[in-house]
Amino acid sequence: MEFSVSRKIIVALIILAAISIYITFTFNSCLVSNISNRVPKWRRTSVVNEIPLIHYTSSVRVVSLLEGNETDLSPKYKLFKEQGLRPERQLPEALIIGVKKGGTRALLEFIRIHPDVRAAGSEVHFFDKNYHKGFQWYREHMPPTLEGQLTIEKTPSYFITKEAPRRVHMMNLSTKLLVVVRDPVTRAISDYTQAVSKKPDMKSFENLVFINGTVGSIVDTSWGPIKLGLYYKYLTRWLKFFPLSQLLFISGERLIQDPAIELKRVQDFLGLKKVVTEKHFYFNSTKGFPCLFKSEGHSAPHCLGKTKGRSHPYVDPLVLQRLRDFYRPFNMRFYQMTGINFGWP
Ligand SMILES: Nc1ncnc2c1ncn2[C@@H]1O[C@H](COP(=O)(O)OS(=O)(=O)O)[C@@H](OP(=O)(O)O)[C@H]1O
């Protein structure tokens, strides 16, 4: 009898437990389904996914390596990208500061063949016209480089800009300075040729060289093409800020006759391995100038553009002689200052 009572109690307890389990389960499922139905569809994705998304978008900016004002598609640059290297823009360590019409473009195009050199393509005019824009602006105009690569820029007007030596010194007192110089008489004619190509109604060279326009009278040193040939004067300013050993003078004449010799001097001066050699050049008889077998931008042989190596107008030999006599003492002074006899007539 006792046994049957306790059996009834156990059965009753089991039934009670089963009922309570059923009620709890049903209630909870209703609750869960209710909550999920109230949450808008766009929120029903996993919260775990949202965290990294927000994190990446807010803290990591995906910047194209080509971002900036220079679109650099050079083979050297593409190679860096392919290798997963991150080049950065640096202020130049070397500058081609002049002289205008000396052969500065040729020098830049020749030296930039070197794998350890990267150059700003166009003249940046930072130390003369754009100085107020600041060094950050200047850096942004430089090409991206890898560690160990040298950044170079050329703006020939730096040589004659009064404030340029102090400004370059302020940027980096170790800046290496390259100056391509050329016989000031030929340089003046080259300068005039460029000016007359833009303004065809200009007076003749002979007319502009002399103060009252007559051959044999006083040379007009206020006329830009003449004034710029007084190299000693501009060099004096640079030597107030830089030792002579930090400047390399390249002969514009030899850069045409034997570019490899001048390029050897340039590579030594810049502390570069001798990579650019005679193998890179050939003489193009149509152009009348040395040209490159290949370079950064071209894989085929090519010469500098039409504005380099223009034919000069005929100039009266008397005027030429008068100008040579005028420049001689100033050239001598320049030879003494640099320790180089450039052999100008
Ligand atoms: N390889 C080669 N090809 C063409 N031209 C050459 C070369 N090497 C030196 N040059 C001489 O460079 C002169 C132009 O000088 P710049 O480049 O300094 O001119 S500029 O100041 O940048 O306008 C340019 O002057 P012009 O002959 O009066 O045109 C050339 O004589």
From TrEMBL:
Name of the protein described by the UniProt record: Heparan sulfate glucosamine 3-O-sulfotransferase 3A1
Taxon lineage: Eukaryota, Metazoa, Ecdysozoa, Arthropoda, Hexapoda
Residue ranges constituting the Sulfotransferase domain according to the UniProt record: 93-328
Catalytic residues as annotated in Swiss-Prot or TrEMBL: K101 (for sulfotransferase activity)
Top-level division of the source organism's lineage: Eukaryota
Cysteine pairings via disulfide bonds: C291-C303
Pfam families named in the record: Sulfotransfer_1
InterPro entries: NST/OST, P-loop_NTPase, Sulfotransferase_dom
Keyword Zinc part of the UniProt annotation: no
Family according to the record: Belongs to the sulfotransferase 1 family.
Subcellular location: Endomembrane system; Golgi apparatus membrane
GO cellular component: Golgi membrane
Molecular functions per Gene Ontology: [heparan sulfate]-glucosamine 3-sulfotransferase activity
Annotated TM spans: 9-27
Organism: Sitophilus oryzae (Rice weevil)
